[in-house]
Amino acid sequence: MVGKVVMDVDPSSSIEPSMEAAKGLEVGERVLVDFERGFKARMVDDGAWRGLGSSDTADEKKRSQVLVETLERVEEVRSGHTEQLRASASAGLSPACGKPSASNAAELQFWLDKIEREARSIVYSVVVVSAPASLSDCVAQFYRQAFREYIDTSEETSSMEVEGPSEQGGDQKGRIEALMGGEWCDRLSFVGQTLNKLGLSHQSENIYTDIVFDHLENWLEERAAGEYTEACLLAAQKYNQGVIMGFLELLLESTSHGFGSEESKNDVVGQWKSRLDFFIYEILGRMRTEEMFDIVVDFPESMQALKDLKVCLEHTNFTDLFIQKFSSQLKKRLLHLGAGTPVILAQYISSIKALNILDPSGILSEIICPLVKDYLKKRKDTTRCTVNMVVYDENLLLVNGGEEEDEGAEGRFHEGGAQSTEDLEDVDLVLKELQWEPVPIQAAQLFNSASVRNTFKTASKDIVAALIDVLGNKEYFIKEYKMILAERLLSKVDDDIDDETRILELLKLRFGANSLRDCEIMLKDMADSKRITSNIRALVQQSQGHSAITQDFSTVILSELFWPPLFEGEVSTPKEVQWMLDTFGSQYKALKAPRTLHWKPHLGVVDLELDFGGEAKEFTVSVAQALIISQFESRVAWESEELAAAAGMAHESLAEKASIWVNSGILKKSVDKGTKKVTYKLVEDVEDQVEKPHAHTKPDLSVMSQEQQMEMNMKVYESYVMGMVTNLESLPLEKIHNMLKMFVLEPVYDKTIQELEAFLAKLVNDNKLTFDGIVYRKKKR
Amino acid sequence: MDLSRVQKEIREISQDKASGISVRVLGEDLTRLEGTLKGPKDTVYEGGIFVVDIEIKGVYPFEPPKMRFKSKIWHPNVSSQNGAICLDILKDQWSPALTIKTALLSLQALLCSPEPNDPQDAVVAKQYLNDMPLFEQTARHWTRTYASETASQKNLKQLLEMGFSEEDASTALDNAGGDLNTALAALLG
Amino acid sequence: MMMDTTTTARTTEAEAAAPPRAFKVKVKHWRTLASWSWNAGDDVCGICRNPFDGCSPEAKYPGDDSPVVWGTCRHAFHLQCITQWLSSQTEQRCPICRQNWEFKSAMETDE
Prior knowledge:
The structure holds three protein chains of three kinds.
Chain A: H1 2-8, H2 11-22, H3 29-46, H4 58-90, H5 104-130, H6 134-156, H7 169-180, H8 182-197, H9 201-224, H10 233-255, H11 262-298, H12 303-315, H13 319-333, H14 341-358, H15 363-377, H16 382-393, H17 407-415, H18 421-434, H19 441-446, H20 450-461, H21 463-471, H22 474-490, H23 498-511, H24 517-544, E1 553-558, H25 575-592, E2 596-611, E3 616-622, H26 623-630, E4 637-639, H27 640-647, H28 651-663, E5 667-671, E6 678-682, H29 686-689, H30 706-728, E7 730-732, H31 733-743, H32 753-765, E8 769-771, E9 775-778
Antiparallel strand pairs in A: 2-3, 4-6, 5-6, 7-9, 8-9
Helix pairs in contact in A: 3-8, 4-5, 6-9, 7-8, 7-10, 8-10, 9-10, 9-11, 10-11, 11-12, 11-13, 11-14, 13-15, 14-15, 14-16, 16-21, 16-22, 20-21, 22-24, 24-25, 26-28, 27-28, 30-32
Chain B: H1 3-15, E1 21-25, E2 32-38, E3 49-55, E4 66-69, H2 100-112, H3 122-130, H4 132-147, H5 151-161, H6 166-175, H7 180-187
Antiparallel strand pairs in B: 1-2, 2-3, 3-4
Chain C: E1 24-37, E2 68-70, E3 76-78, H1 79-87, H2 106-109
Antiparallel strand pairs in C: 2-3
């Protein structure tokens, strides 16, 4: 409308004089009137508005005065000009040039608007330049109080429909009026309008934005911090929509002297809502990011917190921050000497699961997990702990997936030609897979190596695969599993292998039957042994009548080639046991000729009951350990060499085997200061000393650990390695590896570079070599 | 075919560096191998490295591996045309207790003591029986011409035996102008 | 089973003080380990090159499933291996010594 009028007027001739006329004009009547009589008076009287009238410093006071005076003067000029314009308009003259004009009503309006605008901008300049510094404090204080009142009242009437259909502000306003009373609403509107008129809407917006944001932040802090079991995001958004936006809508309506239209109102309100929602994403996202480590600790109870964080990360650009923060939390809180390997592994698994919830594409976990993985690789007991965790502690095997599908599984997949309902479900799954989601850009930059991308999906989605990935390959896993299985089978006296059989079946599904053949044979040995033992027991019973192979004797017959290497050793077998070995052996020969048994009398497990003349204590120990303690039936004290001789074992291994009894408080070990001779003595008041009969009482093991095997296999190369570093001073790993390959023919060097690395690490540990990260040197003595 | 036995045999041969024989796998499966054997000392074949084509059939070890000289060789029991070998243990005298290694060693022995009375190549056998000097001359010539490694091949082979990849080894040798020690130093960093 | 340790532990009895009170070790169960072997030398089967105490090529388990047999020539093979060889031959000869193959009876083996 205004534009049209301007077009009607000759721009070059007519505007100039009126510009002159309008200069310095007009603050719309209402502005100054409101300011003088309403705004100032009401604010000051309310006590919320302390700045303008009652400033403490002289300077402030003076500035307030200047401001008010200036504004009054502006108003004077403005009203003069306005009157003048109206007068000439009513006289039928053009307000611009004083000539008669046909369209003077429109023209008058144009000039009035123009004067109004000019005056406004002057007022604004004046206010900006000379408003007292405390003005914004006053405004802030006012809004803060109003907001506080509003929130308090809202919370008091918490029955109030927070989730109500308040998206369109219509009943929002009515609701607030009902809640806070008309006067409160008027006052809020009035202050908003006035600030707007003074051109201070921008500053005041900053002020109440801060107040609202602070409040939201506190609200989230109170409700969400450290609390991971409940979803907070949705609640926060509802709170935002229902409560916060109610206040803001009222305010927005007043500051923009009413929305032009319903549409523009919705625009403004919508923008504000998104702005606050985004703020919630930021606050909650940041909070959860800082808490990520604890969230993982609580996983899966913390699922809701993770889901919230996922949405927050999707709506913000915090991914990099998240990666950086969580990585440093892991380093600081997990990857240190104080944390046991099982703890690290458990947290590793939870981390992968949690990260996969945050980012189903698996990229986050693929970026963050190597940190833990590389750390775990350096720990000696990682393999063992991993296998224990996968196989025994957690039920990870039952979880579907497994990249290591054997041929059988693949075959099934290709054979399925007909479309069964299952197939259709598969199609759905495939389609789901196809819904491609772009990789977060920041993450993608960190992560664009093609080869890595091929593996990350499987590795991070399948926990077992992820754990095996820590070990390097599945062979290490299977080898260690074989060790653990052997230990478990050989360190108990019962024949129950149901659990182990079930586990083995699950492992076979994952790794294929072939790679677990040894384990299968081990289990079959156990079952066969049980059967043969009972057969022979029956045979002996028939033939001998009185002297029998008793129920408390049993034998495990190993297919030794398929078991891990067993420890060598000797003991003097008690004669009852020896009799049973002989009888059993000849019966076996009769049954299985030409096969015969080769006894390993130093290996085996004994269930003992130690009777101290009172309460009896039970122990499950190795044969050697049993023989040691048995000697104390006849004598309370043994000098260690005699004891070893009595038990028929090597003196060097005695201390280690006897330690179980020393640790249990049954034997006391003392060293003669002069002769250095070690004596073991039965503890007098044993019953008080035996605290935990079954603590430390794991029988020592029959099978050699992987490390012990490796050491045994590698030992022959030690002299070569030492020779090399003596002659060549410093050598990197690869060079040592290649030189061994080249020069060592007897026995042929067939180790992998990883095996060599582990062996060199051991030599470093033994203070034979030093390693600076690049080259190995001979340790100077 | 008993795959595990063939694998074991190949591993065994590769670990035995003293016997002067070697074997490598051609292709994906273990049905096609290539063996080499050194010409025995103090024979007309000395200095030669003879390549033998080996085919392992599914019934192995119950049937002999099929062997044929790839390198041309002048020998009464080997065809000078196509390398076909006349050796009883590769035919009816085969036993599953024999191996690829023992077969190659038998070939080596055959080079030491030809059997002209049971010839594969009648022309060579006749020459062997009637004109020994000419036979020896021809056999030596063939050995030099068809079965001798050049120095660079020798060096490359040596590097391969140390476990370097063919590509790395030949690059290193090229850079070193064919000198073994320089190439080795480069490979070892 | 009550274990009599006197057989093994009386070397220094003279100087040993008698046990002042009843300390008894009762064995509730004694489990010992053994391994079995065909006793065919620690060698491998001349046909499949697998250890005798391992599996023959087609067998899943060692021992009962992979029996070892001897010829009168005293050469041993996995039963499956020698059977397959003999069935492919018109003349029944030992793969190692080429003597006529005859199975040695279990009685003779058990010498």
